[in-house]
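User: I'm writing a short report section on ligand binding and want a predicted complex to refer to. Could you take this sequence and adenosine-5'-diphosphate and write out the structure as tokens? A short remark afterwards would be nice.
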Amino acid sequence: MFSGSPPVHLMWSSMYNPEKQKLKRRVDWRRLGELFRPYIWQEIQLTVCIVATSLLGLLPPLLTLSIIDKAIPKNDFNLLLLDVGLMLASALISGLIGVYQGYLSSFVGESIIRDLHTRLVTHLHHMPLSFFAATKTGEIMNRVSNDVEAVDSVVTMTIVAILTNVFIIITTLFAIFALDVRLAALSLVLIPLMVVPLWPVGRRMYDARKRTRAKRDEMHSATQETLSVSGIVLVKSFVKEELERSRFFKLANELMKLEVNVAMVGRWFLMAITFMITAGPAAIWLIGGWLAIKHGVTVGVLVSFVALLGRLYTPVSSLAGVQVQIVSALAVFERIFDYLDMSEEQDALNATELKQTEGAVKFQDVTFIYPETKRGVRNLSFQVNPGQMVAIVGPSGAGKSTVAQLLPRLFDPDSGYISIDQNDIKSLTRASVRNHIGIVMQETYLFHDTILANLKYAKEDASEEEVIQACKAANIHDFISSLPEGYKTIVGERGHKLSGGERQRLAIARVLLKDPKILILDEATSSLDTENEAAIQAALEPLMQGRSTLVVAHRLSTIMNADCIYVIEDGSIIEQGN
Ligand code: ADP
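Assistant: Sure. The structure tokens for the complex follow:
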């Protein structure tokens, strides 16, 4: 079998480098539309509300007409009362509808944001390890949280803005043509003056925002790196606070300039449009006034016409504005879609589940080279029989950790194959392979949570008894019990409140709870003092019982009990024995 994983490792870094990435120019409306599809029922209700409020909005100007041209000249106080009463009623009803409309629109918008967020995070969980090695954590965080938030307002406001404005325009057009065809035609002539100037603004805004978001990625990576526990220790120990301050200020300053640029894009055009919104009615006053003097257009028609004109021009200019917003928001959407488009770890089409296993592991002529460094492992062949312990030793950089990562398919070999019980692991689903493998890494990762929660990550339904048993076997129960809060102790960010040895024994207890058939110990005892090493050695013994174990270490003392030892150097086996 020789399919090999695609050499994606290099791809990530170059593909998502904003400088290199060509700015895409096509608006993928269908993709945006798909986000709205699940909420069609709410969107229909929203449309009904909007139609109703835009119809109700026509009433006040028409009632004004009735007051000026009918009620007052005819001294009809009852009609005046009716008109004013209707005015109040229409305002009240459309206000009430507005409340429900507000609920619907934020429900739809926030639901879409929730879906997008969840899709993005889930997708990232399924991305291969190589992606995370090549991408800065800060950049990932920026896309997951800030980018999604940045499109929030567009998503929540867009449909409402579009629908509202379209319906207001349609109803107003009917009303003004009914009032006076000549004035209505004149008002339409002015519309292109408000829309055309905005066309180029969207594109410019798009470019500006793309650059701004990329700068934000940089800034988040910088903060994320220096503000982590290990990062801050590095900064403090080298007394680099001043350097970091100036580095940060430089980035923040560049971002500030870009943001000012975004804010200023299209400001001149907007000014022109605002001017038109005021100037339009002036033109109508002029022509309409002339019509009133010469051709008997009534004052009521003229006043209500100008009142209606606001209902025409404001929505036209907001629609143009919405277009600008959407096009520029697309710069952010594309960043999210870029992530969603990256391929996840894919199991083979006909992949099967590894249900049970004896724990027989075999590496046959396995070659895997990291594209960036051209280093890795070459033509490795060895096997671990069920229940055996096999050790891989060798100097640092020899490729031991790579071996440990190939078995759980964090990477797939370029050539050769790895099998578990005679099944090539590429023909098995990744999840089922990983379910049978327990790993104790050089660096134990713990979540910022209680000891108990960290342990139960391996087995959610573990009973208290099971947890304690595992901890006793891992030689850590006494230590946990001695803590004031016992198993409820919060371990701190990445578990930094515990010592390296304690973290590792917790990791061993965690794997014991998982109870896998195959075990990988990656330099589990390399960085410890003798006392801790003895404690861990004692913890490891029950762990290895009845399991096939692959130990990866650079010290011979830790692997004395191994059934077979392979020495590797520069990615190849140079010696074997026991
Ligand atoms: P060991 O565990 O024996 O110290 P590794 O398996 O970690 O060695 O690394 C083997 C070689 O592969 C090293 O030369 C290292 O520089 C390189 N390497 C390890 N991880 C990566 C990676 N994610 N990308 C590129 N090169 C890597």
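A remark for your report: The pocket of adenosine-5'-diphosphate is lined by residues 133, 370, 372-373, 375-376, 394, 396-402 (CB under 6 Å). The chain has a mean pLDDT of 83.
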